Amino acid sequence: MTTSARRKLAAPTLAMLPRVADSLSFLYTEAVRIVQDDTGVCAQVESPNGTDRVYIPTAALACVLLGPGTSITQPAMATFARHGTSIVCVGAGGVRSYAGVLPASLTTAWLEEQVRAWASDDSRLQVATRMYEMRFGASSAPAGATLPQLRGFEGQRVKALYRLLATKYGVKRFKRNYDPDAWDDQDPVNKALSAANACMYGVIHAAVLALGCSPALGFVHSGTQMAFVYDVADLYKARITVPLAFSLHASTDPEREARRRLREDFRAFKLMPQIVADVQSLFDSSGDSSPTADRASDLVHLWDPQAGPLPAGVNYGFEAASVSISEFDTRDLE
């Protein structure tokens, strides 16, 4: 293979980049070394019999969760970035999500939509109300409901869901509890729910980053870099992770079973494209998703509040009123 051909394969064009909605869910790794070789990116495990390798379909993954004992080389990270795959560092079993790395080529179109909606208290409340109605049905939020009222309604509905599922699965008493310092003392439902939610956070984090949005600018949650991820995760817990956790109330290994079942559910529910569509509709109630036409863009525009985005790299001197060059201190230009 020639150097030119190899360079073209290593730098895919915009058309070759996968859309996040078409991606598979996620890959969790633990105690492996991820490297780039001449064939692709692979996970290596050293054993007495030699080195075992499993090649990773980087272009088909939306998110790779790096668990404890995982190391990754810079060339492998660069390949993930070129393919638009987000990298999220997580705790054991994906129970915690610590940080994410996103490709530098992402467009800022949806980030700008998110910031506009977040920066105004009125529009922020509108998005929070839209989230509530996504969870509990259209028109479920009374007209003019305040944020404290929405929190109260949400708490009542979640408690009712817990009671319904506890009755269905014969769980005598259930109280939601998440305490990492007393993890082994928790009941199977709480363990399964925490593990399932953590996996969901990883997938949603990947979707949010893949759209170019900020995971920190939440509309209900705040104060953490994952605030918006927690907002979006709440849209699906009642439908996916909560019923799954209750179904594992008698499991001897609820965490492992929850992660395995969740992978299947992510495919069955086609969650990744649903996340992308829901995030878009949160910021654009008109249903016009044109800002996502390109996930990645190398184009840079100039901001203009009246004319809209203007192309960069253009000399706009003819549009400005004449100024005297002598007004400038040209010493720094010499």
TrEMBL record:
Pfam families associated with the record: Cas_Cas1
Keyword Flavoprotein part of the UniProt annotation: no
Keywords of the record: Antiviral defense, DNA-binding, Endonuclease, Hydrolase, Magnesium, Manganese, Metal-binding, Nuclease
Coiled-coil annotated residue ranges, if any: none
GO molecular function: endonuclease activity
EC number: 3.1.-.-
Cofactor requirement: Mg(2+); Mn(2+)
Residues given in the record as Mn(2+) binding sites: E154, H221, D234
Top EC group: hydrolase
InterPro entries: Cas1, Cas1_I-E, CRISPR-assoc_Cas1, CRISPR-assoc_Cas1_C, CRISPR-assoc_Cas1_ECOLI, CRISPR-assoc_Cas1_N
Protein function: CRISPR (clustered regularly interspaced short palindromic repeat), is an adaptive immune system that provides protection against mobile genetic elements (viruses, transposable elements and conjugative plasmids). CRISPR clusters contain spacers, sequences complementary to antecedent mobile elements, and target invading nucleic acids. CRISPR clusters are transcribed and processed into CRISPR RNA (crRNA). Acts as a dsDNA endonuclease. Involved in the integration of spacer DNA into the CRISPR cassette.
Quaternary state and interactors: Homodimer, forms a heterotetramer with a Cas2 homodimer.
Family statement: Belongs to the CRISPR-associated endonuclease Cas1 family.
Protein name, as recorded: CRISPR-associated endonuclease Cas1
Gene that encodes the chain: cas1e
